[in-house]
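Sequence design from tokenized structure. All designs in this work follow the same two-part layout: the structure record, then the generated sequence. An example of the structure record is given first.
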């Protein structure tokens, strides 16, 4: 684990919280160190031929970690927000990312919270898929918001993901050969009142280009970058359009996105750090760009050593439309168990995130699933309650579409209180609100045969009947009970092996 001194100070000042998952303020910004051989050598190579303007589509394989018991995974909603933010952060680079075969769910407590980088190495080398940038979403990546291992993949903390968080873009920047603009200062606290050194050393034990932690002296040196730009190609990140920056802890910026803290270079020239760079440690609200030279380096990386991440021939179009709920809507009454939610198909969407909640804020969700269909079946809900539900469409490249407008439904007043009888018959609720569906469970051997159901009023008159073959054991009967007067009715259903009779009360009818 690597922390700056300031991080420890911040940690000491942060109130203790009971949740196990660390918050952003409790994590170091990034664990990545070092500069790649590729970048060092790129200064001596011919520039890579790049047809700028063509969008490069890069494969990402995401692994979403939970504890051994499956608890503690990032919500899919937050993950989709993170993926959307990643592509938005890269929109000026003409590099965009797509999910290679969706995401991978892993349950492993020792990876979900890993205290050391070697545990993260183990996680990645065990689960990586080829020909993709592998990204791991965990609760705690060794005390950092994230880190990048050049030979393995990136890790991101749940607390440093979601919309308006640029940690994923920062770590992908590392994976595409970008160092920190303040390289060499990691773990050191800049002090204006002491002379600024001309050279810094740093430990990059786990951050070589290859998995080789056996190097006897895992130290490298970085020249400190000067304000006049005279050593920019050989100092710090060796990138000339990222100005000097010595701040290796989370820092605030002013209205121009410059650091509040003034620094001076080894010659005494004063400056403020540029907080707009994703590769800096400025707060997220300061960050909004990669520099032009950084973009060139990332694209050249993809055209050379990471060409296997780039997928040709992209045809999947963006998802821009909002889905519309078809049923249930406007407080329609649904059965307590097995309610069916339907919506219209959205152009270019291949998947839908469906949520239902007791609360319009969706602060707690009774249903939170991903489907490729345009319907979902809710499990067991509580009776006689209002629920809200919504749908969010996406595909493997585009996850920025918002949720649909809220729809609502109500669960039926009475849940089945009796078990099915010996033959498997059950009918509920016995008290019906007007037009509330009736749920009928038939004996197993009635399935696949014609079933006749009739309803008689208290005077013995037939008011409704239906003859139909039922293929499922549980069916919903939509009775026109809203047109009936309130009172008691008799239901009889006749199937292959006999008849069943139930007394129903229509409550609040005409
Ligand atoms: Zn970093």
């Amino acid at each position: 684990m690597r922390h700056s001194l300031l991080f420890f100070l911040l940690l000491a000042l942060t109130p203790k919280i009971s949740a196990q998952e660390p918050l952003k303020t409790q994590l170091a910004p990034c664990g990545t160190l070092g500069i790649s051989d590729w970048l060092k050598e790129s200064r001596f190579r011919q520039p890579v031929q790049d047809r700028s303007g063509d969008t490069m589509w890069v494969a990402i394989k995401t692994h979403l970690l939970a504890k051994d018991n499956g608890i503690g995974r990032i919500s899919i909603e937050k993950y989709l927000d993170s993926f959307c933010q990643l592509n938005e952060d890269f929109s000026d680079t003409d590099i965009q990312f797509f999910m290679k075969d969706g995401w991978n769910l892993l349950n492993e407590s020792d990876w979900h919270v890993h205290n050391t980088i070697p545990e993260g190495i183990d996680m990645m080398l065990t689960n990586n898929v080829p020909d993709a940038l592998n990204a791991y979403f965990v609760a705690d990546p060794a005390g950092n918001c994230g880190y990048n291992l050049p030979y393995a993949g990136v890790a991101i903390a749940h607390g440093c993901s979601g919309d308006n968080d640029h940690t994923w873009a920062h770590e992908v920047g590392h994976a595409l050969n970008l160092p920190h603009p303040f390289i060499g200062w990691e773990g050191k606290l800049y002090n204006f009142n002491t002379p600024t050194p001309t050279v810094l050393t740093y430990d990059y034990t786990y951050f070589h280009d290859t998995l080789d932690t056996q190097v006897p002296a895992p130290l490298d040196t970085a020249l400190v970058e000067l304000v006049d730009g005279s050593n920019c190609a050989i100092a710090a990140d060796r990138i000339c359009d990222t100005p000097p920056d010595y701040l290796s802890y989370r820092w605030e910026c002013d209205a121009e996105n410059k650091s509040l803290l003034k620094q001076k270079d080894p010659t005494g020239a004063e400056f403020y750090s540029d907080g707009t760079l994703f590769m800096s440690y400025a707060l997220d609200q300061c960050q909004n760009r990669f520099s032009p030279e950084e973009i060139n380096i990332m694209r050249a990386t993809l055209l050379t050593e990471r060409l296997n991440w780039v997928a040709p021939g992209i045809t999947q179009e963006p998802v821009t439309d909002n889905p519309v709920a078809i049923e249930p809507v406007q407080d329609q009454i649904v059965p307590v168990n097995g309610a069916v939610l339907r919506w219209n198909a959205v152009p270019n969407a291949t998947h839908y995130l469906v949520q239902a909640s007791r609360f319009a804020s969706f602060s707690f969700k009774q249903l939170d699933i991903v489907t490729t269909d345009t319907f979902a079946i809710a499990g067991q809900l509580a009776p006689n309650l209002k629920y809200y539900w919504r749908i969010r469409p996406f595909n493997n490249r585009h996850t920025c579409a918002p949720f649909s407008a809220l729809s609502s439904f109500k669960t039926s007043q009475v849940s089945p209180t009796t078990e099915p009888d010996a033959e498997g018959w059950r009918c509920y609720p016995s008290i019906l609100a007007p037009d509330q569906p009736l749920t009928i469970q038939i004996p197993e051997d009635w399935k696949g045969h014609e079933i006749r159901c009739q309803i008689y009023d208290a005077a013995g008159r037939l008011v409704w009947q239906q003859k139909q073959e039922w293929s499922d054991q549980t069916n919903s009967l939509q009775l026109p009970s809203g047109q009936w007067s309130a009172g008691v009715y008799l239901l009889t259903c006749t199937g292959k092996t006999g008849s069943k009779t139930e007394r129903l009360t229509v409550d609040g009818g005409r």
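The chain has seven helices and 28 strands. We note this feature because it recurs in several other targets discussed in the main text.
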